[in-house]
Amino acid sequence: MGWLSLAIWMPIAIGALLLLLGRESQVQLVRWIALIGSLVSFLVTLPLYRGFRLGTPEMQFVENHSWIARFNVNYHLGVDGISFWFVLLTAFMTVIVVIAGWQVIERRVNQYMAAFLILSGLMIGVFCALDGVLFYVFFEATLIPMYLIIGVWGGPNRIYAAFKFFLYTLLGSLLMLVAFIYLYARADGSFDILTWHALPLTGTEQTMLFFAMLAAFAVKVPMWPVHTWLPDVHVEAPTGGSAVLAAIMLKLGAYGFLRFSLPILPDASREWAWLMVGLSLVAVIYVGLVALVQQDMKKLVAYSSVAHMGFVTLGFFIFNDLGISGGLVQMIAHGFVSGAMFLSIGVLYDRVHSREISAYGGVVSKMPRFTTFALLFAMANCGLPGTAGFVGEWMVILGAVKFNFWIGLLAATALILGASYTLWMFKRVYFGPVTNDNVRKLKDINAREFFMLSVLAVAVLWMGIYPKPFTDVMQASVDNLIKQVAVSKLN
Amino acid sequence: MIDKFSWVAIYPEVVLLVMACAIALLDLFDRSRGRIVAYVLSLLTLVVLIALTGMNAAAGQTIYGFGGLVVSDQMANWLKCFSAVAVAVAFVYGRTYVGLRGMLRGGEWYVLSLFSLFGVFVMISANNFLLIYLGLECMTLAGYAMVALRRDHVTSVEAAMKYFVLGAMASGFLLYGLSMLYGATGTLDISAVFRAVATGQIKHQVLVFGLVFVVAGVAFKFGAVPFHMWIPDVYQGAPTSVTLMIGAAPKLAAFAMAIRLLVEGLLPLAIDWQQMFGLLAIASLLIGNLVAVAQANLKRMLAYSTIGQVGFIFLGLMAGVSGGTALGAANAYSSAMFYVVTYVLTTLASFGIILLLSREGFESEEISDLAGLNQRSPLFAAIMAVCLFSLAGIPPLVGFQAKLSVLQALISTGYVVHLGLAVFAVLMSLIGAFAYLRVVKVMYFDEPTTVAPIQAPWDMRALLTVNGAMLLVLGILPGALMTLCARAIVQMLGT
Question: Where does the sequence pass through the membrane (chain B) (predicted)?
């Protein structure tokens, strides 16, 4: 069993084990098993970093076994510079989420922890899969645990949100499945993604496949105008669910563009780049404005996620080195930052049971330690230099300016908008006089929360100050991708 | 006409018939409430049959018996094996339910089921139009009686009436079509019909006229729209144990009937019946999935879901000849076979859960009856959730593999129309997903009205767990079953 298989199946196996421990009296045991299990699952991804060879776009840690021989479906795993960091990020965030749910979740703890561990394994599977069916299986299977997480542990309107999440994303994925089967038939019976990369396709075929895949990935990212499920889901989901959704699940869609749309359909990608850039700019600017007027903290961060993911897709579809690696860096940074933002909101929500911005005020005077962390994450969300949020945005804007000055200029307005909504929210929640009794009774964070937030803070600062390890890993794969997308498949 | 192979070809049928008669007799002397003698003997018979047909299938020979009236090939034996498994599983699931409801104290349920299974066996093995018809009648007659077993129960009696009238009409359609074909070709032997039609000498009009009725008969048995009206009423009205019996194994028989009549007999007319299947598939996918969403009764919802699933099976059947290659045809029919087999497996588990939740004097039929099942029993909630997600076609469950194989057969033909059909099918399954999700929602998100834990006999609990696990295991490792279906179909096409 290779390292990638281990990274995928270990959390799933531990999750399944937790499901067998059904007793309510074993809650503490369940928590510890989940924590140790997620930690070990994270540790088994670390050898990947040590063993990763830089400077080659080839797939590494490849495992290839026949899976369904009749359809030539293989259990084919591997990572390159594009997918590598997401494996680690997923395993890392799972540990954080387990800690975040430690005391907060009291009902059906074993199912909660199991859902997150299984989800973690499935998402790592998405990033490692090099076979179309395998990818689809992991991609879709993530819906089941997430649906249950939202529906069982979510807020008052959780059922609506769970359905919306499931059906929206299922619709997209089903069209992608049809696209995959079409590619399978065109490739003389091969589901191998790398074979698809080299497959010649006509212009019409490419356009049709492009839109079929767009349906899946745009919903998942989510791009404007199919983003409406995200705020609803974020508001209703439990804290851990929001964190995983924002930190990892949204990345599945963006990752899909890089793994499928750009290399398999280069001509269609270039032809429709104007559309993608346009939608991305709308996401960045319009959704940024929408975020400005939100009353609910989670909704605000959800809209800010849409805007930040707009940056990612913008970076991808300007087809230069800075844009694509900037988009990738932004994805990882957004993983840390948005995860941290949602967890911070969770910390407040656990105490006051409200996410309304107006229910707070002057939190800093009661929770100084917590506010320090929150400030750091807010700054990262605005893209302050020295934090993770800065690197990706800056690269994408540079790339966009290189591509077209005006697009670069429009994208740069996002920095202003991002700073406005984040800081305005921060001011209203944390600063000013203490407005009500709820806030007056607040207690500062405990050791568990301190640990959780400081780990994220280290990640955010590390990535902001020294992003080289991240970009180094990507470089060769991004260069190769740019070459792939530049070469026409027609004639 | 009786040669040395004749008896070899029908060993399973002989065993089944003898045992069914013996059990009917012995049951007369059993006064116990649960009819333990009939139960144990029936299960033993089925185990013997499973072993026998399984060994026959593994041997892989094609044997014609009784002057070509019956054929025992891999497809026949595997389908028989699976239908025997289905009936055995239904016996285990239904035993308590039947015992508690005093359905003529239970014995008849076993005997009639065995007779129905006999009909299934005959249909699967038939190599002659008349024999198919005989098998069909034997299967459905037993079914009519079973639906009416609770004779003091108004909805059951009503369902039986509907089932009988519509079933008789369906048989009439089929018989009429077969007689037209007989008139045109002068033979009832399937391979002779094939040869006669293939000559192209026979008037196309007459053939197509007969064909329309045959297809209608097949569609009736599958419950495809617009011949679906009986399905929801019968599924809902019949005692759940009987729903399980007529919802599972007869689907395999209907599949065999479609293959024998249309592929083995009327393949040269494929261009005609294919289009009909396409239309039936579109209508079934549309109506089945749409109407399923609106149901409050779980059995009725599953009935409409059946109709939707049949749409997929028909898509697989219609994709067969269009590719033009034998490989393509084998691919398509085996994907349809895989779909039917796995669908039956899912049906068993889902109705098994409904049976489990029913207590004396209380039918757990409304979707709301499942409220908070996860809190009462995480295991059974998980099994039901697995069934529902599988029906919705979500990986890694087997329903996804089935849909995938049908869709790839459809798209691989390379026709743009088929691509459109595939897109239509996935959009419809999206709508269906809503219906299934609603049940999952009730089980996991709603609060239970009672917290009483669920009692289940150990055999049922174990079998349900295995059944649910199979849906996951076959979803992750579908290779063996797919290969099995492919081999069976290739052999069938080769002869």
Answer: 6-29, 36-55, 75-94, 161-184, 204-231, 252-271, 277-298, 310-330, 336-357, 378-395, 415-437, 469-490
Amino acid letter for position B278? G
Chain A, residues 175-234, CB within 8 A of chain B, namely: 175, 177-178, 181-182, 184-185
Which of A78-92, A163-177, B94-108 is least confident? B94-108
Distance CA A192, CA A184 (A): 8
Q: For position B105, what pLDDT does the model report?
A: 64
Q: Which of B220, B11, B191, B33 is nearest to B109 (CA)?
A: B33
Residue to substitute from A134, A144, A204, A236, interface B, most B β-carbons within 10 A: A144
**Contact across the interface for A181 and B407, Cβ inside 8 Å:** yes
Query: Where on the phi/psi map is residue A165: left (φ > 0), alpha (ψ -120 to 50), or beta?
Result: alpha
Sort out which chain A residues have CB atoms less than 8 A from B427's CB and list them: 171, 174
Instruction: Provide the residue ranges of all domains of chain B, joining segments of one domain with +.
Output: 270-495
ipTM: 0.89
d(CA B378, CA B400): 23
Mean pLDDT of A152-174: 86
Segments in B126-188 forming alpha helices (H)? 129-147, 154-185
- pLDDT single digits (tens) B354-366: 888 886 567 777 8
B441, B444, B486 ranked by CB distance to A70: nearest: B486
Those residues whose C-beta lies under 8 Å from the C-beta of residue B490, and which sit 6 or more positions away, are B330, B334
Q: Is B427 exposed, middle or buried (0-12, 13-18, 19+ CB in 10 A)?
A: middle
Q: Is A141 on the interface with B (CB under 8 A)?
A: yes
Q: What percentage of chain A carries pLDDT values higher than 90?
A: 12
Strand A60-68 versus strand A73-79 pairing type = antiparallel
Distance CA A343, CA B273 (A): 59
Q: What is the pLDDT of residues A445-476, one digit of tens each?
A: 888 888 889 999 999 999 888 888 888 888 88
Q: By C-alpha distance, which of A219, A179, A119, A173 is closest to B430? A: A173
What is the distance between the alpha carbons of residues B307 and B434, in angstroms, rounded to a whole number?
A: 16
**Maximum separation of any 2 CA atoms in chain B, in Å:** 70
Q: Select from B315, B391, B408 the residue whose CB has the most chain A CBs within 10 Å, as the one to mutate to test that interface.
A: B408
What is the C-alpha to C-alpha distance for residues A213 and A173, in angstroms, rounded to an integer?
8
For residue A195, with 0-12 CB atoms within 10 Å meaning exposed, 13-18 middle and 19 or more buried, which class applies?
Answer: middle
Q: Which residues pair with B63 in a beta bridge?
A: B72
DSSP string for residues in B352-396: HHHHHH-BTTB---BGGGGTTHHHH-HHHHHHHHHHHHHHHT-TT
**Does B405 sit within 8 Å of A71, measured CB to CB?**
yes
Smallest CA–CA separation between A240 and chain B, in Å? Answer: 18
Q: Residue A67: list chain B partners with CB under 8 A.
A: 479
Rg (CA), chain A: 21
Q: ∠ CA(B12), CA(B14), CA(B19), 5° rounding?
A: 100
| A102: DSSP letter | T
Average pLDDT over residues A298-323: 89
Q: What is the mean pLDDT of residues B135-163?
A: 88
CA atoms within 13 A on the CB side of B333: 28
Q: What is the pTM of this model?
A: 0.92
Nearest chain B Cα distance for residue A403, angstroms: 37
Mean pLDDT of chain A: 87
Work out the pLDDT band at B106, boundaries 50, 70, 90. Answer: low
Backbone angles phi, psi at A129, to 5 degrees: -70, 135
Q: Residue A434 forms beta bridges with which residues?
A: none
**Pairing status of strand B70-72 against strand B63-65:** antiparallel
Cross-strand pairs, B189: B128
